[in-house]
């Protein structure tokens, strides 16, 4: 029996594949390689290049491998881009997601771990954010994730599909082998590291007039290794017959954009000039998780998610892979 990992050649997917294989799990990866990298996976990982919503391809994968469960990462994930190009997000994340989950349900796959997002909450009414907090996204990316959450919940009620939707806060950091390499890169930590490396002249800071102590937005950064660990625990929870659930993946601690940049200055000991720019449309001012429920349901603790460890791991990976994933 194998676990299908869609988007398994992407940033969080590849670290999860690494973790699953380290535990001796059989894994098969489906990835369109638009953002993912074949080099992020060991050569012997069974791999199919294609779209997560390609029903014919999914039938072939299910035929070739007896699928027990799916961890569904494959999605576009840039907030700003989703505001500029919503159609791309609804087609890719929602339309393809519906096709994929329906096709898997038809193939008899009854367990899904889904990459959801804190973007489903929008501008929160209270901090920290619990899973019961109101969900009203401020951008199409968040809506695309919320739609899939609703779909999974309905499929559980109607068809008995069991799922865990993991609402990530800000994934960051790297494992020894796998790191963050997006094209183009929009996320804060890799962008600041590019400036530290001299690849970019200045960090654009998108707004310094938010209602936060230093005026820049606050986020809850979580190490990709802790995220990957939670996916594996979510799968084990479903295997034990656990209920479908929605769970926050964050640390409970928030850092402003300026605090992150300062931490990166300390770790890299490089000069990092910044330039204040207009706020990015769709950006909430403060997103910090209450991870209490996740800790209880999955017996999970963020083990390596202090900001310095996150930054140090991302920096070390970038020093080893200055151009990201490129064939040697
Ligand atoms: N940000 C920034 N400059 C950048 C990238 C991001 O000021 O080059 C800010 C962004 O406005 C947000 C925070 O950093 O407030 C985290 O953004 P990121 O894109 O990393 O994650 P998001 O929270 O949007 O998923």
Element layout with pairings:
Blueprint: E1 2-6, H1 11-22, E2 27-31, E3 47-49, H2 55-64, E4 67-72, H3 79-84, H4 86-106, E5 111-117, H5 140-159, E6 162-168, E7 170-172, H6 188-196, E8 203-206, E9 218-219, E10 221-223, H7 224-239, E11 245-249, E12 255-256, H8 257-268, E13 274-277, E14 286-287, H9 292-298, H10 307-320
Helix pairs in contact: 1-7, 2-4, 4-5, 6-8, 8-10
Bound molecules: uridine-5'-diphosphate (UDP).
Structure overview:
With 328 residues, the chain is α/β, with parallel strands linked by helices. The chain folds into two domains: 2-172 and 221-250, Rossmann fold (3-Layer(aba) Sandwich), CATH 3.40.50; 188-218 and 253-297 and 303-320, Alpha-Beta Complex (UDP-galactose 4-epimerase, domain 1), CATH 3.90.25. The protein has ten helices and 14 strands. It has helices at residues 11-22, 55-64, 79-84, 86-106, 140-159, 188-196, 224-239, 257-268, 292-298, 307-320; strands at 2-6, 27-31, 47-49, 67-72, 111-117, 162-168, 170-172, 203-206, 218-219, 221-223, 245-249, 255-256, 274-277, 286-287. A seven-stranded parallel beta sheet has the order 3-2-1-4-5-6-11, sandwiched between helices. Helix 1 (11-22) links the parallel strand 1 and strand 2. Helix 4 packs parallel to helix 5, helix 6 packs parallel to helix 8 (257-268) and helix 8 (257-268) crosses helix 10. The model has no long low-confidence stretch (mean pLDDT 96). Bound molecules: uridine-5'-diphosphate. Residues 79, 170, 186-188, 191, 203-206, 217, 219, 257, 280, 283 line the site of uridine-5'-diphosphate.
């Amino acid at each position: 029996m194998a676990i299908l990992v869609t988007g398994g050649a992407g940033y969080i997917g590849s670290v999860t594949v690494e973790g699953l294989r380290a535990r001796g799990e059989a894994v098969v990866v489906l990835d369109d390689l638009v953002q993912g990298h074949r080099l992020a996976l060991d050569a012997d990982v069974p791999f199919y290049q294609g779209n997560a919503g390609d029903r014919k391809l999914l039938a072939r994968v299910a035929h070739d491998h007896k699928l027990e469960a799916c961890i569904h990462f494959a999605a576009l994930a840039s907030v700003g881009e989703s505001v500029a190009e919503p159609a791309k997000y609804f087609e890719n994340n929602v339309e393809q997601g519906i096709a994929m989950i329906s096709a898997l349900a038809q193939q008899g796959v009854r367990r899904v771990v889904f990459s959801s997002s804190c973007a489903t909450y929008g501008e929160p009414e209270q901090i920290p954010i619990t899973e019961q907090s109101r969900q009203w996204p401020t951008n199409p990316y968040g809506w695309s994730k919320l739609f899939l959450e609703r779909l999974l919940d309905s499929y559980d009620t109607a068809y008995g599909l069991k799922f865990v939707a993991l609402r990530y806060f800000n994934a960051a950091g790297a494992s020894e082998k796998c790191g963050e390499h997006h094209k183009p890169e929009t996320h804060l930590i890799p962008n600041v590291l590019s400036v530290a490396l001299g690849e970019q002249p200045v960090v654009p800071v998108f707004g310094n007039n938010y209602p936060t102590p230093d005026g820049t937005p606050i986020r809850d950064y979580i190490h990709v290794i802790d995220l990957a660990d939670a996916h594996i625990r979510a799968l084990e929870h479903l295997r034990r017959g656990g209920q479908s659930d929605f769970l926050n993946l964050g640390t409970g601690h928030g850092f402003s954009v300026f605090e992150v940049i300062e931490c990166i200055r300390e770790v890299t000991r490089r000069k990092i000039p910044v330039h204040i720019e207009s706020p990015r449309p769709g950006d909430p001012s403060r997103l910090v998780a209450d991870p209490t429920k996740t800790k209880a349901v999955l017996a999970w603790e963020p083990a390596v998610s202090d900001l310095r460890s996150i930054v140090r791991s991302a920096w070390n990976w970038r020093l080893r892979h200055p151009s990201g994933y490129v064939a040697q």
